Structures are given as C-alpha cells and as structure tokens.
Amino acid sequence: MTISADELLTTTRSVRKRLDLTRPVPMELVRECLEIALQAPTGGNAQLWRWIVVTDPAKRAAIGGYYKRAWDTYYASGSSARALFKDDPERAAAQERVSGSAAYLAERMGEVPVHVIGCMAVPRLPEGNQAGLWGSLLPAAWSYMLAARARGLGTAWTTLHLAYESEVAELLGIPGDVRQGVLLPTAYYTGETFRPARRQPLDEVLHVDGW
User: Fold this and answer.
1) Distance in Å from the first CA to the final CA of the chain
2) Which residue from 5, 9, 14, 3 is spatially nearest to 154, judged by alpha carbons?
3) Contact 91, 85 (CB under 8 A)
4) Fewer beta carbons under 10 A from the terminal one: N or C of the chain?
5) CA–CA separation, 29 vs 50, rounded Å?
6) Chain-wide mean pLDDT for the chain?
7) Considering only CA atoms, which of 163, 161, 188 is closest in space to residue 52?
8) Is 32 exposed, middle or buried, given 0-12, 13-18 or 19+ CB atoms closer than 10 A?
9) Cα–Cα distance, 156 to 183 (Å, whole number)
10) % of the chain with per-residue pLDDT over 90
11) Phi/psi at 30 (nearest 5 deg)?
12) What pLDDT score does 86 carry?
C-alpha cells in the first residue's frame, strides 16, 4: 500500500466494526509495526515502554470478558459517547454511531486476532500530574497504529480493560512494577473507505499567544 504521510495521519481511525475477526495476522507484521513504534519520542531516552502481544485464544477471550464487563459498567453510567452533545442533532448522531461501534467491539474484543498492550516499567506511579510518564508511551502506541494502517491492519485505541488491570496482569504474568496504558486490538480491516473525520473547525479551538 502506498499512502502519503498526510493521508495516513488524517485517515487512521479507530476501527471497530470493520476488523476481520477470522483472518490471522502474522506475528512478523505486528513486529514490524512495533519496531516503528520504538522510534517514537521517549522522555530522557529512558525507553520504559513494554509491549505484550496476545494471540492465545483463551487469553484473548479472558481479556475480552474483562473488557465487556468494563464496557457494560461504563455504558450504564451514562457517560459514554452517546451522552455527549445531545443539544446538537448533527453531533449527537455522530456520537450515537461512535457508541454503537464501541458496543460492537465490546461484544467481540475476545475474538480480535491480536491484542497489543502497551505498558510502562515504573516502580510506582508518580503523584500528581502524570503527563511526563504516559507521554513516553502514547506517541509510540500511536506510531504503532499508523504503521498498522499502512500495512492494511486496523486498530482501535482502548483503555476500558484498565478497570481490571490487576486481573489482566495476573492472567499475563505482568510484574507488579509494570503498568498497562493502552490495549490495541489489531486485525486486518475490511473495505477501503477511510477518510478524515469531521472535527471542530480549527479556529474554534485555537488560541494564539494566550487563551
């Protein structure tokens, strides 16, 4: 696949309904994406990230079960995407679509061929602002998603499983000084109609030289 940098950056979406749950993903392809992810910025060049690739069906099913439980709680709380912008019919319709696709993935997370969990190796989480810590993981995870898109793979940024972080850590044998930050379900995607998402106009969110 040949794709420009601008197109890659503007059409890499969270893929939920269009993940191919039946087509195996070669580990070598996942490794290629992770090799690219390792080139992302990392605070102090510490490279504290750790990556867990889960392909075992039983473990994926267990993670999927935790994810579905977390989704059910989140949805029942009334704070999911569908609760936002109800006074704006156009945005409300978009939020309903997002919520519907999120629910679809929650039902099928355990069936997604590959789970990639991005972690940070830290003795303890810092108190107060943690942007400096997670800022060393999130760019790498996004780079993974971009590399996957360029190779015909779909991903989605998810964190709901963190409600059961300790249970997933026990399932996967993750040490106590390693904290999970993101779960990236990965599969081949179906269709070719990715396009930029509708966003707020830049001038509505831009401030120059002060608020």
Assistant:
1) 42
2) 14
3) yes
4) C
5) 18
6) 90
7) 161
8) middle
9) 8
10) 68
11) -65, -40
12) 58
Q: In what order do the strands lie in the sheet with 178-188?
A: 49-54, 114-121, 178-188, 153-155
Structure tokens at 94: 């978009």
- Residues for the chain: how many in total? 211
The pLDDT of residue 87: 67
CB half-sphere exposure, 99, CA atoms < 13 A:
18
* Euclidean distance between CA atoms 194 and 197, whole angstroms: 9
Does 193 score more than 80 pLDDT? no
DSSP class of 125: P
Question: Which stretch, 39-53, 112-126, 167-181, has highest mean pLDDT?
Answer: 167-181
Q: What is the token pair recorded at 9? A: 């950056």
* Cα–Cα nearest to 153, from 114, 123, 125: 114
Q: Residue 156 — left, alpha, or beta (φ > 0 → left; ψ -120 to 50 → alpha)?
A: beta
Pick the more confident residue, 51 or 91: 51
How many CA atoms are closer than 13 Å to the CA of 200, on its beta-carbon side?
Answer: 7
DSSP for 115-165, please give it: EEEEEEE-SSPPSS--HHHHTTTHHHHHHHHHHHHHTTEEE--B-GGGGGH
Take residue 129 and report the two structure tokens written for it: 């602002």
CB 183 within 8 A of CB 63: yes
Q: Which has more pLDDT, 189 or 92?
A: 189
Q: Let me know: does 118 contact 181? Beta carbons within 8 Å.
A: yes
